[in-house]
Amino acid sequence: MMKKTTGIHHITAIVGHPQENVDFYAGVLGMRLVKQTVNFDDPGTYHFYFGDDVGNPGTIITFFPWANAYKGRIGDGQVGVTTYAVPVGSMEFWEKRLAKYAIPFRKALRFGEQFLKFDDPHGLHLELVERAYGPTNQWTFGEVTPEVAIKGFGGAILYSAYPEKTSQLLEELMGLEKVGEDGDYIRFQSNSEIGNIVDIKITPSGSRGRMGVGTVHHIAWRAEDLNDQLNWQKLLAKNGYGVTEIKDRNYFTSIYFKEHGEILFEIATDPPGFGIDEAYEKMGDELKLPPQYEPIRDRIEGVLLPFKVRELD
């Protein structure tokens, strides 16, 4: 039987100043900062996790904020657009909210759905779409209440350097179903209620993406647990993908590989989740470090820029 991922686990991007990042995703979009930690490979850099009220898989966008770092370029070999699902009937609220904060937006139609498209302060391409399915996000922040709050990922648009090869991987190895084509896009769907739709842009732009501020670093897919992840690792290696060893990220474990369309993919476990080291009421309040960095906490905190999660309304 073909293995199947249930969909997107998280998406990780590179952004600029941490306060600007937090103000936008918490203050404007109303998402919860469920975890503040560091890049385990570069502990002088924050790693922020924003999502629904508990940080469920399929809702988490993560960031490496690099203040004053070089600007990247969105192009082939990257996730080009990150899509968020909002409740049916909430789009008028979001149009008014973006206008309130002077964030330019435009509307677009794809696969019979209307999307509200805009950029974050550092240049990441985002869009909102109304979806009836998927659990309600119970988080309230400022004027963003559960009735209108972002549920999680509606999906993503992949800018593959070789769309046919990426499509083949998603359909034949990762178990997503091809559900249609619309103009320059192919749509694939998993069996989850959130983070379940991925569109691939059929025609490459011819401009290779360049990693830096305002670009997505990687997209992560869901594994049920460590055993499922081991099976994914074996399957990918068997099919010629250069997959990494398992890396412990505290809140999940990860494997990484570059797919043939040159997008960095990760497969991450659903457990243990973000509640293992903080109570629900305190999630995201304090800097959490993995054990190997606790002895140098003072040094790390002396390098990291201060920020506050603050209501902007």
Describe the structure.
The protein is an alpha+beta fold and 313 residues long. The radius of gyration is 18 Å and the shape is globular. The protein is 17% helix and 34% strand. A hairpin with a 2-residue loop joins strand 6 and strand 7. It starts with 7 loop residues before the first strand and ends in a 10-residue tail after the last helix. It has a single domain, classed as 2,3-Dihydroxybiphenyl 1,2-Dioxygenase, domain 1. The longest helix is centred in the last third of the chain and has 13 residues, at 226-238. Pfam families: Glyoxalase. It comes from Perspicuibacillus lycopersici. GO terms for molecular function: dioxygenase activity.
Features:
2,3-Dihydroxybiphenyl 1,2-Dioxygenase, domain 1; 34% strand; eight-stranded mixed beta sheet; 5 helices; 17% helix; 313 residues; alpha+beta
List the helices and strands and how they pair.
Blueprint: E1 8-15, H1 18-28, E2 32-39, E3 42-51, E4 60-65, E5 78-86, H2 91-100, E6 106-110, E7 113-119, E8 125-130, E9 152-159, H3 163-173, E10 177-182, E11 185-189, E12 197-201, E13 215-223, H4 226-238, E14 247-248, E15 253-258, E16 264-269, H5 297-303
Parallel strand pairs: 1-4, 5-8, 9-12, 13-16
Antiparallel strand pairs: 1-13, 2-3, 3-4, 5-9, 6-7, 7-8, 10-11, 11-12, 14-15, 15-16
